[in-house]
Amino acid sequence: MITAKAFRKYAYHSQPFDIHLADGRAIHVPHGEHIAVEPGGRMFLLWEPDDGFEMSNLTMVTSVKSGFPKPNH
Length: 73
Known about the structure:
With 73 residues, this protein is mainly beta. It is built from one helix and six strands; from the N terminus they run αββββββ.
């Protein structure tokens, strides 16, 4: 599980990243401005490209992977 403090740091990233959840899903975040952690640090909100949103429990986050994949040369 990632802490709310550590997760909030991703809100300042301009690089895309993926959030991996305990149910096996991976959520792609195109920019840190698309997420917010509620003040209590239990839930996070993700704004989706189609003007929708998803709210998830932060305790369900198993890992966060940032950056772009390395190109094959």
